[in-house]
Amino acid sequence: MEENKIPASVEKKELRGVCGCAEYFISLPSVCTAPAISAFHKRRAEKYLENLARRALHRNISWNVWADFQESFNEYPILSIFTDTYEDLGPMGSRILRSAFTWDTKNQRLLSIADIFENPGLFSSAVRARALEYIKTQQLSSPGSVFFDAVKRLDGWGWYLCDLGAAIFWQRGKIAPESCGLPSLIIPFKDLALKGPLAQALK
Which of 22, 133, 172, 183 has its CA 20 to 30 A from that of 126? Predict the structure, then answer.
């Protein structure tokens, strides 16, 4: 029987509520054909809220959280999503964090760089090369939009897939002032050696 190669159907489910001085809203991906993926994100959100509530209780502060996920790439059997989370912790300040996950929906398995790119070392080298170009461009076109020592801060990047290629990002305040937003760049698929489920998805 020929394999059904329809992209995953993704719905948004919500966790929202008020707990004491806390208010939260988190959107979660629900994949009807891949319940393990849905369960993973639900457990992760619940654990995150528990830890945040514990921190707030310890410091006796109110807090608010808003988090929304975006479906950035969905071609069978790959699903890539990212979530931007806004935390307001009162006197502890606020911050925006991005997290990202790429899944093999057929096997309900979280994918790593090594699962979909031929050479993880070359991929990391490509990230660094593109990042150096990005920093140089920013320093020339908009001085102050990246830190003077941004080149030394390039470790700790995250990634997800989009229609144009592999999207690379750094958290706010990592290589640029928080006021400049979340630095990101895209490495086109044509410049990368693909394998496994990603090669299958892009056939």
Answer: 172
Q: Looking at the chain, which residues constitute the CATH 3.30.565.40 domain(s)?
A: 10-110
**Where do you find CATH 3.90.640.20 in the chain?**
113-201
Residues 6+ apart with CB under 8 A from 171: 97, 98, 156, 158, 182
Tokens 């090369």, located at residue: 129
What residues contact 30, with CB distance under 8 A and at least 6 apart? 10, 11, 12, 13, 38
Q: Could you tell me the two tokens for 181?
A: 């937003």
Q: What CATH fold (topology level) applies to the domain 113-201? A: Actin; Chain A, domain 4 (3.90.640)
Q: What is the pLDDT of residues 96-153, one digit of tens each?
A: 999 999 999 999 999 999 999 999 999 999 999 999 999 999 999 998 999 999 999 9
Domain 10-110 has CATH 3.30.565.40: yes
CA pair distance 99, 25, nearest whole angstrom:
16
Using one digit for the tens of pLDDT, what is the confidence trace for 61-98? 778 899 999 999 999 999 999 999 999 877 778 899 99
Cis ω for the linkage preceding 120 (within 30 of 0) = no
- Please compute the mean of the pLDDT values over residues 172-189 and round it to a whole number: 95
Phi, psi of 98 (to 5 degrees): -115, 135
- When the pLDDT of each residue in the chain is averaged and rounded to a whole number, the result is 92
